[in-house]
Amino acid sequence: MPERLSFAGHYKRSLLGLVGLLLLPACSESYLTDGQLQITIGQESEAWSADPLPKNVVLEMVETTKRTTLANVSAPVSSISLGTGGPENTVASFEATAFDAATNVVMKGATVRLQFGSSGFEDARIALFMGRMGGLSRPPGDLFFPHHHPQMLTLNHGYLLISGGDEASPNLDVYNFPRWLPGAQQKPLPKVPESWAVAGSKILLIDHAGATWLDVSVTPYTESPVLPPVGLVFDRIIGGQTVVGADDTQYIVGATRVTGEPTNQVLRVDPDATLHLMKLGTPRLGAAAAMVNAQLLVVAGSATGEGAEVSTTDGTGFSALPFPADARQGAAVVAQDANTAVLAGGRDPATDEISGFRTMDLACSEDCAQVQIAKADFAFDYPQLFSLSAGQLLAVGEDPVSKETHVFTFDTGIGHALNEFALRVPRTAASAFMLPNGQVGVIGGESIEDEIPATSLELFFPQP
């Protein structure tokens, strides 16, 4: 008999461990019901009818590195039967790919990772959102609240939490990626998340008054005070970005904030909710941060000291990298590979000039310097970078004058092509985030056309 689990508290969601959700209805004693994968095209009504026309859809199950083809059906399709067999006591995700008559990929979709019990596909109901390749598509549903430059986190590898931002509001939106639906309207958070992190089913909320744990695994959800690690001052990390490691360790990097005093404090939040203070060698303001080789890289944000630091392998402190001091503030950084980081944007506080794309050789041991990429300017504020593949990044930024959000792909190989993709709802003051299914989403802001909140999510589907 499939196990039925429920998400406790006012969120009213169903969670399954740390890998997402699979709702399984109660089964009958007399017959077995085939599992179904249900395909949605969300708010893009012309997805199936646009040229080139999709001819067939291939559905695959992905278990780590193993791929199993489950179906090859004619397009368009809204539901695919999975039968009653399937994996038992395992974790898998699903990918659907639509091909045209010339076998070119024209549509794609992927689920989050889902956990199966002993009943395989029996009675399973799995949702999958597909969109056209080479652009942005809107999944089903809209957010309840306005958000300008919102902050986002992922809970239990399946739920996107959206709050904070320019409004300094405790309003919370939740998007349910296992079901591809927005959550019901939520109660306000107990405090505005000026910075926040997630550990299991607990949400760490930090503001100028202190910090609170919000535990959503119990009914009703509970709040508890947070005892900071010795030496940590919450005021020195609030406003800092949260960087998430592959093992779910989260880092609130005070040095990435763009207002206030420079700080060297980093709060490490382990998956078991224990907290640790880490200190940079140089206090910074407006630094860029990202994970590289399971270590936290922090770059720029100070006219003194080394230009970059990387966390030690034991996660207790930082080692300086031999790059010259870099005072630029507000840049974005992402790992291109094990030894290369790519940066974009950031303003020089002395000249107010915005920098373009550049690279860092993290294996460099002496006379190191960032290398500017010729003819790859990026004259945008609020830059964000995401790795799409070994040779391509996604760059999101905001025009300093019009405040409009722009989305580009950037090729890191020969040519360094920078190509812009139009948002389905042109908007200002949006944020981008790596979503639980591995896609990048653009979220929040205000519609340019009518100056009302842009409540739809937009997901980028890269060309293969």
Question: What do these coordinates show?
Answer:
The protein has no helices and 38 strands. It is mainly β and 464 residues long. The chain has three domains: 35-133, Immunoglobulin-like (Sandwich); 136-149 and 331-360 and 370-464, Neuraminidase; 190-326, Kelch-type beta propeller (Neuraminidase, 6 Propeller). Strands 1, 2, 3, 4, 5, 6, 7 and 8 form an eight-stranded mixed beta sheet that branches. The protein has a four-stranded antiparallel beta sheet with strand order 9-38-36-35, with no helix packed on it. A hairpin with a 5-residue loop joins strand 18 and strand 19 (250-253). The chain is globular, with a radius of gyration of 22 Å. It starts with 34 loop residues before the first strand and ends with a strand. 46% of the residues are buried. Residues 1-31 have low confidence and may be disordered.
Overall geometry comes to globular
Query: So what's the oligomer here?
Result: single chain
Characterize the main sheet. 8 strands, mixed
Which structural category do the helix and sheet elements fall into? mainly beta
List the helices and strands and how they pair.
Elements (H helix, E strand, L loop, with lengths): L34 E6 L15 E8 L2 E9 L4 E5 L6 E10 L5 E6 L3 E3 L8 E8 L2 E3 L13 E5 L3 E5 L9 E4 L4 E2 L12 E5 L2 E6 L2 E6 L6 E4 L15 E4 L5 E4 L9 E7 L5 E10 L3 E5 L2 E5 L8 E4 L6 E4 L10 E6 L2 E5 L13 E4 L9 E2 L8 E9 L2 E7 L6 E7 L6 E4 L5 E2 L2 E4 L5 E4 L2 E2 L10 E4 L3
Parallel strand pairs: 1-8
Antiparallel strand pairs: 1-4, 2-3, 2-5, 5-6, 5-7, 6-8, 9-38, 10-11, 11-12, 12-13, 14-15, 15-16, 16-17, 18-19, 19-20, 20-21, 22-23, 23-24, 24-25, 26-27, 27-28, 28-29, 30-31, 31-32, 32-33, 34-37, 35-36, 36-38
